[in-house]
Design goal:
single chain; four-stranded antiparallel beta sheet; 4 strands
């Protein structure tokens, strides 16, 4: 299946707006993309503090941004695990049905 998500490494870019007193974290792709772009890369997501400036709001937004930024690599890892045939010793890794189902479900959620 052809990749449909934005190509390139997804990175975090931080911004602090002292006037509005908020911090934001942006997830961007830095490959040659023509979608939703600005002059500094393709924007995947903008996450900001919310919910009444809770003490942990930016930490939570930052954790969400890190998870989003890792999504392409996590998807690739899941696909790779399912494609594994044999290792260097000719052994075939076995996945439990539960683990296979979890991985297949995650791939489906990300791609359909």
């Amino acid at each position: 299946m052809k990749t449909q998500h934005t190509k390139g490494e997804w990175i975090l870019v931080y911004n602090k707006d002292n006037h509005a007193m908020i911090e934001t974290v942006r997830v961007k792709a830095w490959e040659d993309n023509n979608l939703m772009g600005d002059y500094r890369g393709c924007i995947i997501a903008d996450l900001t503090e919310s919910h009444g400036f809770r003490k942990h709001a930016f930490a939570e937004a930052n954790a969400n941004a890190r998870l989003i930024a890792a999504a392409p690599e996590l998807l690739n890892a899941c696909k790779t695990v399912l494609k594994c045939k044999t290792n260097q010793y000719g052994e075939t890794p076995e996945l439990s049905n539960d683990l296979r189902t979890i991985i297949e479900s995650a791939i489906k959620k990300a791609t359909e």
